[in-house]
């Protein structure tokens, strides 16, 4: 009797951008990745609505990180990705927003490459795009700013340092990720480098989600207004952008009827 041998099943990892939280903003390609996945490793800030879609046919594992708080170590996430793929499982590594923007993507890809595991990146809508849409603004505008900076409020060493002199110039626009805890630091550095105290600053909490909130302030009032707002969800900070008048009016009307 002839004996047959089955080749071992080969695993694969899809890095999927979950977008800002609204499940309607998921890409078709992202949903297809969920449907063929055996397991989904997801960040802490993924919305429940998206996790429900991701978990319809796959096992969910929370590997979330918290800024200045308890977190999975990056090396442990890398090791888990490799182990699951070596076992032959199809893995989705689900990251908030777009996986290529402040998503620690490179470390995980390098771990997979070292183990000879195949992978692919499925882009998502980053928080800056969703937040800009929520305040009715564009990230760039002729005559205002021909560039926009994507910055992080903190990195592995603590509060992140940037080119504050360039940011302090009139007309500068920046989208600041993970900026709530570093707001006072950012405010101080910009003022120290000559930024106008009246520069608009807008924070969008839970952009695109039903519980979205918009805080409109100025650089001068940033720290105090943010403290009073008591924002607990993920927030994107825009330096140099204020909500469009129509959005401001709609927000005020919503508050009156709340």
From TrEMBL:
Gene Ontology MF terms: uroporphyrin-III C-methyltransferase activity
Keyword set includes Transferase: yes
Presence of keyword Ubl conjugation: no
Keywords: Methyltransferase, Porphyrin biosynthesis, S-adenosyl-L-methionine, Transferase
Enzyme nomenclature, EC number: 2.1.1.107
Matches recorded under CDD domains: SUMT
Domain Tetrapyrrole methylase: 15-222
Example GO BP: siroheme biosynthetic process
Coiled coil: none
Pathway the protein contributes to: Porphyrin-containing compound metabolism; siroheme biosynthesis; precorrin-2 from uroporphyrinogen III: step 1/1
InterPro entries xrefs: 4pyrrol_Mease, 4pyrrol_Methylase_sf, 4pyrrole_Mease_sub1, 4pyrrole_Mease_sub2, CobA/CysG_C, Siro_Cobalamin_biosynth, Uropor_MeTrfase_CS
Family of this protein: Belongs to the precorrin methyltransferase family.
Protein name (database record): uroporphyrinogen-III C-methyltransferase
Native species: Ruegeria intermedia
Taxonomic lineage: Bacteria, Pseudomonadati, Pseudomonadota, Alphaproteobacteria, Rhodobacterales
């Amino acid at each position: 009797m002839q004996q047959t041998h089955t080749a071992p099943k080969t695993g694969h990892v899809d890095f999927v951008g979950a977008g800002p939280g609204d499940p309607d903003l998921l890409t078709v390609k992202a949903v297809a990745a969920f449907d063929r996945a055996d397991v989904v490793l997801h960040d802490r800030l993924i919305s429940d609505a998206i996790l429900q879609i991701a978990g319809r046919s796959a096992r969910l594992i929370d590997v979330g990180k918290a800024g200045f708080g308890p977190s999975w170590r990056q090396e442990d996430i890398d090791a888990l990705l490799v182990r699951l793929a070596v076992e032959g499982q199809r893995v989705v590594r689900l990251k908030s927003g777009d996986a290529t923007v402040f998503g620690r993507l490179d470390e995980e890809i390098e771990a997979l490459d070292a183990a000879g595991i195949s992978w692919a990146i499925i882009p998502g809508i980053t928080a800056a795009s969703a937040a800009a849409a929520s305040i009715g603004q564009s990230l760039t505008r002729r005559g205002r700013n021909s560039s926009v900076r994507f910055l992080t409020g903190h990195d592995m060493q603590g509060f992140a340092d940037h080119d504050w002199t360039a940011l302090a110039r009139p007309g500068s626009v920046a989208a600041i990720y993970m900026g709530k805890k570093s707001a006072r630091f950012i405010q101080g550095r910009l003022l120290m480098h000559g930024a106008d105290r009246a520069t608009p600053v807008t924070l969008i909490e839970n952009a695109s989600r039903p519980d979205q909130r918009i805080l409109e302030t100025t650089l001068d009032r940033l720290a105090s207004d943010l403290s009073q707002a008591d924002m607990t969800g993920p927030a994107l900070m825009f330096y140099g952008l204020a909500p469009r008048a129509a959005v401001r009016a709609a927000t005020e009307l919503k508050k009156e009827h709340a």
